[in-house]
Amino acid sequence: MADQPLLLEGSGLKKRYGGVVALSDVSIRLAPGEILGLVGPNGAGKTTLVDCISGTQSANSGVLTLKGARLSGPASRRAKLGLARTFQYPQLAQDLTVGENLLLGRVAMQHGSWWRMILQSIRGTFWVGRSSDATVVEAIAEELQITRLDRLAGDLTLGEQRLLEVGRALGQDPVVLLLDEPFAGSDANGVAGIIDVIRTVQRRGHGIILVDHNVDLVSSLVDRIMLLDRGHVVFDGDPAQCIASPEMQRVYFGAAALEADADFETRPDDEVLRHVP
To answer: Is the pTM of this model over 0.70?
Structure first.
């Protein structure tokens, strides 16, 4: 992956909310077929970074490129260029069926923005879907092992809704897939289903940025970890090295706890992971 041109690259990314610095001079890179994990405690800046990449928020400064081209504009424009994302709390149309929600990912690509798609649906010009789009939806449903496309999204469990949102993102045929806490609230089957999707996307040569609080699970999936703390990148590299690093120990346990346990660095990785939230 190191010799390939980067899919996504960002430098000097900064984001402020008044006097609060959410991101401070953050750089990020993602190669084809690479899975990058973003970890850190609450308030570290993980979701803010994903928001600035996807366009749901604008960075105050910094440069982002996708496949070498400058990345700017609203989320709808970036989605058409190849960025797709999920959210901490699933953003689904609760009164639509599973199949209709999956189709939304395809329809949004044709209409250019969500508000235009909704407006055209009100005017009666919203199409149910071309045969090619329907075929893609069926393929995604099969890949996710979704058997009932007629169920309402609002009737699904949280884990099922997360899996459905990942499926809708796949419908956009993304170059880069941004997953914000996709495993939260999922049972073992839901976690396994999302992992299968992640591996499939990786095999296709697309890039994935994965945010999750389950550091153990993230480190087992990703090729590289970025550890954020208060808007700063404090580690960027091998997952196992990150887990054992002084930066990880300091961020999650604090300097006092580290000093009180001088043999902490000699513990096996699995022992460290038992203590990481």
So the answer is: yes
Q: What CATH number does residue 89 fall under?
A: 3.40.50.300
The residue-averaged pLDDT of 136-140 equals 78
CA 186 to CA 267: how far, in whole Å?
30
Take residue 21 and report the two structure tokens written for it.
């610095």
Q: Computed from CA positions of residues 124, 83, 196, 212, in that sequence, does the dihedral angle turn out positive or negative?
A: negative
Domain count within the chain: 1
Residue 104 has pLDDT above 70, yes or no: yes
| Angstrom distances, CA of residue 65 to CA of 7, 28, 29, 45, 201 | 8, 10, 10, 20, 20
pLDDT category at 6 given cuts 50, 70, 90 is very high
Question: What amino acid occupies position 115?
Answer: W
| Any domain includes 106 | yes
Q: Is 212 helix (H, G, I), strand (E, B) or coil?
A: coil
Task: Estimate to the nearest angstrom the gap between the alpha carbon of 113 and the chain centroid.
Answer: 20
The half-sphere exposure of 104 on its side-chain side, counting CA atoms within 13 A, is 27
How far is 169 from 172, CA to CA, in rounded Å? 6
Which amino acid belongs to residue 35? I
